[in-house]
Amino acid sequence: MIKFIIRFICTSILFVCLALNAQIKKIGVPFITNYSPKTYQAASENWDVLQNSQGMMFFANHFGLLQFDGVRWGIIMQPENKSMVRSLAIDKKDRIYIGAQGDFGYVAQLSNGQYHYTSLVKLIPQSFRNFGDIWHTIVLGNEVFFFSYEGIFIYKNNEIKVVKSKGNFQDFYELNNAIYALDSKEGLLKLKDDTLIPIIGSRKFIGMKIINLFGTDDDFIVLTQNEGLFLNKKNELIPWKTEADYLLKKSQVSVGITLPGGYYAIGTREAGFVIIDKEGHLIQHINKQMGLQNEYVTNFRLDAAGNLWVTLKDGIDFIQISSPLSRIIDSMNYETKIYCSQIYQNKLYIGTDNGLFWLDWEAYKRGQHANVHFQRISGMCETVWNIGVFDNVLLAFEKNGIFEINGNSAKVVAKTDGAWQGVVMTNHRDLLIVGGYSGLHLLKKSNKSWVYQHKIKGFNESSRVITIDASENIWIAHGYKGIFKVRLNNSFDGISSVQFYDKKSGFPSSIFLNTVKVNDQILFGTTKGVYKQDPSTKRMVPDAFFKKYLGMNSHIRLLKSDNENNIWYVSGDNTGKINRKKEGGFHIEELPFRKLRYLYIPGFENIQTTKDGDVFFGTQDGLIHYNGTKNKSYQLKYKSIISEVKSIFPKDSILFSSRYDVLPSKKESIKKDFYPILPYSKNALHFSFAALWYDDAEGTKYEYWLEGFEPKWSDWNLQTEKEYTNLAENEYVFHVRAKNIYDVVSEEAIFKFEILAPWYRTTWAYLLYFLLFGALIYAIIKYQRYLGVQEREQLILRQEKELLLNRAELNEQKLVLEQENMNIIRENLETTINLKNAKVASNTVNLIHLNEILLAIKELISQIKKENDSGTNFGLLTKINRIIDHELQGDQHWNEFEEIFNQLHDNFIQRLKASYPELTPRDMRLCAYLRMNFNTKEIAPLLGISVRGVEDTRYRIRKKLQLSSEANITEFILNF
After folding, report:
1. For the chain, which domains are there?
2. Phi first, then psi: what are they for 454, rounded to 5°?
3. 672 or 407: which carries more pLDDT confidence?
C-alpha cells in the first residue's frame, strides 16, 4: 500500500511537471539553433527525426541515418541499396526501424559503437518486392508498420505480411494507437487484424489531401494540405476556423503533430510552421524571418526536455519552446545591441546602438507578429543609453543629448555633450538631475514637459550611474575611480560639497563600482559583493542581507527591485532574482536565466520589469523576454556518452565509434560488453565525448577521470576531447560526466580497456628473464670458480715467478760475481796478451833487427866472395851464407810466433789455412804480418827477401784470395 501511495505521488508530481512544462510561450520567439548542412556535413534534405531512450538524436537524411550527440554529427549507417532514408521509428529496446527507397529494415548498435543494419526485404514475398519510398514507419506494440504507396508491410515475429489497396494509397496516419490509411477509391480506412476496414463516412474523405489526424475528446481533427482543418464530429466534417487559417490555406501544409498541453504544430512548405492551441489561437508562427533556416518543414519531434526539433528541406533547427525566455523580434528585426527598454502607453521602446525603436506591445502580445514591426523614432540614430518615464513623460538619453518621446517622434530637450541617465530629486519632484559625459545637468518640469535649465557647476566627472538618497545627496559611480557623494547648493546651480570613496574607504577595489537604490537604501555593487555605508564610521562595509544571499566573491554588476519588492541582480555571470516568500523570508532563483550568461553588454547590463510580470533583458543578441508563469523543469536527467575512442599510434586507429564505416563490419553481440585489450604499442588513446543535452550545449562543461592513471576527477571545463599518452600496462576505466548550464550533473559514461605489457614485460618475458637470470647466476658461479682457479694458478705463477725472480736475482748476483771474475780474468788475460804482444813485438823487433844484421852480413859476404874468389875462402863463405839463410827462414822462431799469434788473433792462421788451403807457409807468414799491420819494408827482413819480393808475394796472395784489383788486401786480412 505504501509503495502504491509513493508511486501515485511520484506519478502525480511528474504529471503536474509535464503539464506545466507543456505550456508554450506566446510572447516573443523561442530560441532557435540552426544546424546547416555545412554543420552536420550531410545532405541538405532531412525527412524524419527521433530520439532514443538515452537521449541521442537521429535524423532521416538523404545520405543515410544521421546522428547528433550534442557535440558531433555523423552518418552512422546506410541502407543496403544506399538510398535515402525517408522515415524512422523506434521500439522500447532502442532498435531503430528505417524506411528507405525500395528498402526497409532495422538498426541496432553493436558493442564497439557501430550500428548494424539488417534489411527485412528478404522476408517479403517475391511478388511484392517492387515498391518505392517507405514514407512512414510506425511501431505499435510488437508490430512495426512500413508504409509505401504500393502497400503496407507489417513486421512481426520475423515475418512480414503485406496489405494491398483496392485503389491507391495516398497517405497513412496513427491515431489513438490505431493505423489509418487514405485510399483513392474507398476513402479513410482503419487497419484491424491486418485488414483495412472503412470507417463510418469514409467515402467523404475521397479526394481530400489529408496530412494528419489529431485526436480529440469527441472524434478527431483532419489536417489538410490546402483547405485548413476540419472537425470530424458525428461523422460530419465541419471546418475548424483558426487564427492560422490565412497561412495554412495558402502555404501547402506538409506535416502536423500533437504537442502536450493541447497544442498542435503544423508545418508548411512555404511559410515555416505554426503552433496553435486547442481553441485555434495562434501561439507561434516561426518562419525564416523569425530565425528558421528555410520555410519548407518536413517533420517535427518533441524531445524529452520538451524542445522541438524541426527537419527542413535544407537543414535542421532546434527550437526551445519549453523555455520561459524568448526573443522579441519581428520580421524587420532592426534591433542589435539593446541598452535599455521601456513599456510606455502600450508601446515597447528599445534603446539600441542604432537609435530608438518602438512597436505596438499589445498587438505583439496578441500574436500579431506578421503585422507588428519595430519602427524607428525619427531623429535618433545614435546610441541610446537610457530611457525612462519621469512624471508621465518619456525621456531618452543619448549621445547628442536629452530627448522627449511622443509616440513615434522625438523632441530635443537639450543638446549636451552626451547624457547617460536621469533621476528625480527626492524632495523636489519637479527637478530632474541628468548625468552627462562631463558632469551634471538640471531639468525642471514645466507645462507637462521637462525644460533644460543649466549645467551644474563644480563637478565635471562622467556621471553614468547616479542615484539620490532621502537627503538629496547625489551618489555618482565612476567605473574607474570610485564613488562621489555630491550635494547641490540651495539654488541647484552648483556643488556645495563633494566626498570621494574608494578602496581607502573600505571598498575591496576602486574600480567597477556602481551605486543603486533598493528599498530606499543606497547600496554599492563591487567586485566582491554588495556594500553599504556605515552611518557611524562613514566607512563602506558589506551588507549583511546580500552577503547572505549573494556572497562576497562575485562582481555585482546590477541590482534592481521590481513592483513586488523582489530584487533582480546580475552577479558575476549569473542573473537571478531574490524572491520574497509569502510566508516570509527569501529564496534565490537563477536557473531560468542561465541562458543569459555572456549575452549582456559588459558594463551596460539592464533589466526592465513591468507591473504585468513582463521582464525584459537587454543583450547583445537583442531583447529577451521572460514570463514567470511559464514553468520549466530544470532538473531533468540526461546522460553523457563516449562518442569515440581511438589509438593515436598507429595514426587514428579507431577502437570504438558510431561513425559509419570506420570499423570492420563484423557483427558482434549487442549485449556483450566491449572491453578492448590493447598491445603496448597502442598505449596512447584519444577520447571524444559528449552530453545528450541540447539546450545551450556549447555551455555544457565536462569532467573526466582515467581510473588507474589519475587519482581524481579533473576540473570542470568545456573540453570534449581528452588524450592520454605513454600509459603503462594496466586495467583502466575512463569516466566522463557533464554539467549543463543549469548545474545538473549527468549520468557518467565509462569505457573499460586494458593495455598489455610490452613483450619485454610479459609473463613469457619474465620467464625468459628468470631463465636468463638463472643462466647468468650459473655463469657467474662458474666464472667465479674459474676466477678462483685462475687466481690459484696466478698465485702459483706469482709464487713461481717470485721463486724464479729470486733465482734470477741469485743468478744475476752469481753472474755479476762471475762477470767480475771474468773481468778479472779478462784483465789478467789482457795483461797476459799485452805481455805476449809486447813479447811478440819485442821478439819481432829483435828478429827484424837480427835479420837485418844477417842480411847485412850476407851482403858483406857476397861482396867478400866477389873480391876473394879463392876456393878455400869461398867454401867457408858459402857455408856461412847457408847458415845465415837457414836463420832467415826462421822456421823455429815462426812456430813459436804462430802459436802465440793464433792465441791473440782467434786462430787466424788456422782459419785462413782452412779457407784458403793453396796458400804456402810463406804466404801465411806474410798474411800474419799484414794482420799485424806491418808495412812492406818491415815485412821484407822478416821473410828474408827484398821489398820487391814482398810485393810479388802480395800479388800472388791476392790471386789466391781471389781479390779484385780494387780491393785492399790489408783491409781484407784485418777483417778476416
Report:
1. 1-30+241-323 (no CATH), 417-626 (2.130.10.10), 640-757 (2.60.40.10)
2. -175, 170
3. 407
